[in-house]
Amino acid sequence: MVFWSSTSPILLGLLSLLLLIHPINSIRLGLVRRSASTPELHQFREAPAFRNGEECGPTEADCINVAMTLDANYLRGTMAAVLSMLQHSKCPENLSFHFLSANDAPQLFSSIKSTFPYLNMSIYGFESNRVRGKISKSIRQALDQPLNYARIYLPDSLPEDVQRVIYLDSDIVVVDDIAKLWGVDMEGKVVAAPEYCHANFTLYFTDMFWKDPILSKTFKGRKACYFNTGVMVMDVDKWRKEGYTKKMEEWMRVQKEEKRIYHLGSLPPFLLVLAGNIKAVNHRWNQHGLGGDNFEGKCRSLHPGPISLLHWSGKGKPWLRLDSRKPCIVDHLWAPYDLYRKIWLTINHSDDDSHINYTNNSKQQNGIRYLNDY
């Protein structure tokens, strides 16, 4: 197999010479994934336009703010997440997307815009240096990336007129109207999220934390329960006024400079500051853990009960497992939202017949067909 992109005329010339010297029955050439620093990223199909129904109110008055991080490594997941929200929303034009990017990467903006040309969105730069010196090594490298901590700084990154936002990770799909989550009564809390009080809360912190006579009293007077920070409704106005970013930074300082009290990246600072003091949301809004654990990413089954949001938290990501031809059953629930487009070029060559076939999974145009795995 030889890899090729449309910007490789030298390779095509070498290939032509090779065919003259060594007749070949068939060669497949596929589009290579480029790194984030290169001009081109994954190629995506343009999503259909989703329009409001007659029952929808004015887009400004009924605006639903959704915030996500934007990263080349998770772009395919972001595309699927956005499509799922638009597809299941009764008023898709009321959705306003706010993307945080750690790099000045116009190609990310271009990819989103070309895939969703009608999308109401803004992209904000996240200054990685603001958090880089505060990060301590965790159990998985992906958790150590500055952009993973952007949710702590989200209220400071958004415009002042944005006072409420739904924060979502990129490895989710929404299978319900996101307006239902937006409409939750916060009851004066700064964060609303599904809460899991059956989980062993002590496991989220080290023995050093629990044995410390002062630190171990952190949760005194609170019914501290685990919540996943990949799906949160945030009162960003209250967050700013009450200085929650500073509160979390202080715990990051303790972890970095004094003693190791946790292992799980940006999650523990949220738990230390907010566990037991959030608005609990129905579990249907975060069917999390579908990516398996943080070490092996083994397959997991769905939890019983209704589902509004599927979340592949953990090491395993559905697009990677699907591409590897070793998907979990739940990954097929993500596949219908995948807009990634793979292009294949097949060259057939023999002594009496030589031709090139380009093909597309829905129709053939000048012999061109775009093949999608799923």
Automatic annotation (TrEMBL):
Q: Which residues form the signal peptide?
A: 1-26
What GO cellular component term, any one, is given?
Golgi apparatus
Report the protein name in the record: Hexosyltransferase
Its membrane topology: Single-pass type II membrane protein
| EC main group | transferase
By sequence similarity, the record places it as follows: Belongs to the glycosyltransferase 8 family.
Cite the EC number: 2.4.1.-
Annotated pathway, please?
Glycan metabolism; pectin biosynthesis
Record-level Gene Ontology MF annotations: glycosyltransferase activity
Name its species. Lupinus luteus
Sorted UniProt keywords: Glycoprotein, Glycosyltransferase, Membrane, Signal, Signal-anchor, Transferase, Transmembrane, Transmembrane helix
Location relative to the cell: Endomembrane system
